[in-house]
Amino acid sequence: MALTKTIITEQIQTRLDLPRNTAYEVMEEFLEIIKSTIESGEDIMISGFGKFCVNEKSARKGRNPATDEEMTLPARRVVTFKCSGKLRERINSRISSVPPR
């Protein structure tokens, strides 16, 4: 199951003892800050969590696999995420504590 905005809002509401609409506004504003920063081309580094990087991809040749027609794929920006060492350790510590099947 995926973690949704609704679930995140509920957890913010519970953990910070906030009204539901305030928790929703906090989450929406946080996401808006992230989106506008990425849109401007800046990277975002959240200590202990990871780094969102905006990378430029240049135009390149490609082909349509259905028709085998050659085409030029336009330049674009992509967002990548690299988790921090602390997050990686937390993720991997759970693996080592789970017994094999």
Task: Describe the protein in words.
- The protein is an alpha+beta fold.
- The chain folds into two domains: 40 residues; 50 residues, IHF-like DNA-binding proteins (HU Protein, Chain A, Irregular), CATH 4.10.520.10.
- Helix content is 45%, strand content 27%.
- It has three helices and five strands.
- It has a three-stranded antiparallel β-sheet with strand order 1-2-5. Strands 3-4 form a two-stranded antiparallel ribbon.
- Strand 1 and strand 2 form a beta hairpin.
- The radius of gyration is 20 Å and the shape is extended.
Number of strands: 5
Number of helices, counting only DSSP H or I runs of 4 residues or more: 3
CATH architecture of the largest domain: Irregular
- Major sheet summary line: 3 strands, antiparallel
What is the first-to-last residue Cα distance?
Answer: 21 Å
Tell me roughly what share of residues is in helical segments: 40-55%
List keywords for this structure.
101 residues, alpha+beta, 2 domains, 3-stranded antiparallel sheet, two-stranded antiparallel sheet, 3 helices, 5 strands, extended
Sum this structure up briefly.
By secondary structure, the chain is an alpha+beta fold.
